[in-house]
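Hi Y.,

Following your request, here is the sequence exactly as I used it, all 200 residues.
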Amino acid sequence: MRAVRTAVLVSGGGTNLQALLDKKAEGALPHVDFVRVISSRPDAYALTRAETAGVPTHVSPRKGNTQEAFEADILNCLEKDKAELIILAGFMSILSADFVRRYPRRILNVHPALLPAFGGKGFYGLRVHEAALQRGVKLTGATVHYVNEIADGGEIILQKAVSVLPGDTPEILQRRVMEQAEWLILPKAAEIAAKELLNE
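Below is the corresponding structure, written out as tokens. Let me know if you'd prefer a different format.
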């Protein structure tokens, strides 16, 4: 059985990456083979998580680089690794339309809201949860979607709802959305996308 060569792009702590690595270790991602973790920041703890799991890493610094140079470095790494599927797991840079067009239906992103709510430009990290609390929604959650040229605008693969509770702060809500939604649906979506690629 062939597994799809998969790269994970990260920028921070790597909790979503850890969820993927844990599911792989449990045998829940038979069609996914992690060939590289690429970080936009040299100090991202996600790199340590990858190294612990035996996944090769690469740093493509966003800081001090133009978008073109930054993306060229990532592309070079992806091409060397023959990556077929790309997962954005807490990756804090928006990829250009040119980049995205090279990998149609091959880039996945996890977003901490039920898209199309609280998505698009400027909605990332705690900002998403702050907006949800300001709006007074009773349900939020997470979405895994294919990435296209529109920020958070690609086809949805999986969503999972999470309750907003009285007394929630953005930080508390962020943690609940991660634990009850993101960490569950991202690995599932990765396996779905990999199987789809193998059936093409």
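Residues 137 and 164 are 7 Å apart (CA to CA).

Thanks again,
Q.
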